[in-house]
Amino acid sequence: MRKFSLDEIDHQILDILIENARTPFTDIAKRLVVSAGTIHVRVKKMEDEGIIKGSTLILDYEKMGYSFISHVGIYLSKTSKTKKVVEDLKRIPNVTIAYITAGKYNIFCKIRAKDTTHAKEIIFEIDDIDGVSRTETMISLEESINDKTRLMHSIFREI
User: For 48-103, how does the pLDDT look when each residue is reduced to its tens digit (9 = 90+)?
Assistant: First the structure.
């Protein structure tokens, strides 16, 4: 797989888009003192190369009443059940992230709930999935780091 070369303008574009993916190209162009067409061409090129894959919308779950976060480690009765269990997890909307893992758990996921009672209901729903032998739950007290830019800058230094 070949590496795509990014220059300083590309890095600055990515910085701005990571901060707010909805920033208009004209605003980015003004900040970087280049044409909007240049921004459009560079973003399109990064999309074509697979460096940029879509954009995201960040919701304030706390304002919507879903501030309770927990992480659930899932043990499976058989690893051959992994695909089926992941498909069943996709049917539970409160499971926002799921990783197939090596190590202590077969699957590790993040859930969002209204409160502890609601989280308990979700965890019981996970426990009821065929192939899940047991779960371990960790309650998140605070999200201390959620920073994509530090990793991005570290990658920039490498390429």
Answer: 998 999 888 888 889 999 999 999 999 999 999 999 999 999 999 999 999 999 99
- How is residue 123 written in tokens? 């965890």
- Check whether residue 85 and residue 130 sit in a common domain: yes
% of the chain surpassing 90 pLDDT: 73
Co-location of 79 and 110 in the same domain = yes
Are residue 106 and residue 132 in the same domain, yes or no? yes
Token pair, residue 70, equals 């927990």
CATH number of the domain where residue 50 is located: 1.10.10.10
Q: How many CB atoms lie within 10 A of CB 69?
A: 19
- pTM confidence score: 0.78
